[in-house]
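Standup notes
- DV: blocked on the single-chain target, sequence here:
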Amino acid sequence: MFGLTGGIGTGKSTVARMFEARGVPVVDADALAREVVAPGTVGNAEIARAWPQTIGPDGAIDRKKLAGIVFGDPTARARLEAITHPLIQQASASRLTDLAGQGHPLALYEAALLVESGRWRDFDGLIVVTASPERQVQRAVARGGLSRAEAEARVKAQLPAEEKARVATHVIDNDGALAETEARVGALLARLR
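- DV (later): unblocked, structure below
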């Protein structure tokens, strides 16, 4: 089992889909993060206590409103991570154990904060997807939902790619054309298999 990480706009999810298209199962931490804070969960209740203004009439968390709070305040961000990370870790461990039990020789756990949380040590290796900070901002804005200032703030709030790359067993540069990244993913997968 390998970790797969990269900051916002590096293309980590794109790289994950490339691996999936080649038959490698991927457990997505972002999807798990949504599951563990869905209405009726412990995570949702804890966030509602901490930031009641982020809860909609249906009980769902307004993720954009919550992001606006935590990405501008390191203390609030640490508080959110203290709520969600243990829940995500439990869910991911269960999914990865299931995949191993099904006989998958290789699976990926895709998460933005593997290095920051120290979880990268839990895997057989770590794949870091990198891109220049400007490319990260451009991609984050192009995806929609973020202004340039918001995208820049998120890039700055995350550990720089070069710091993540220092602990990587493999680095995929995704600053160029999609075809180049496809080739890099194919070459890496051939080595991993």
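- Follow-up: The chain has two domains: 1-25+105-193, 29-103.
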